[in-house]
Amino acid sequence: MIQLDEIDQALVRALAEDMTANAGALGRELGLSQPACWRRIKRLRAAGVFRGARLDVDAAALGFGVTVFLGVKLATKGRVSLEDFERAVQGIPEVQTIEHVLGAYDYRLRVVARDISDFERVLRRRIMTLPGVGNLDANVLLSEERRPGPI
Are residues 66 and 13 located together in one domain of the fold? Predict the structure, then answer.
């Protein structure tokens, strides 16, 4: 685990807010020269603090107005491997995230759809036909607030 000083923490917060910010502007904001800021960013990246840059796509702007979190309990863990389920669910384009979790369900899926009837189609034709699917629990997303994390 890398030790972060106050400037590193401020740099992580700033980049979490806008990963496209350049080292010169960030350096001025934090009281560093552009080369010093760039060296810190490079050190943080090398230490694995940043796992990469992501494009934040607005699903609603692309016509996907419904997001559903789906809890999936596998029917019998011994009869279907976790790898088989994961491989099969990765082939469904509407499934945005696949999380293997501990608790009432084995997996938590984030599914986008154009509307509720489109979600029902995805659920019936794609998700319920996956190997080993047992119980399902759906929660429709009403609103979302994103926070950069504990830094």
Answer: no
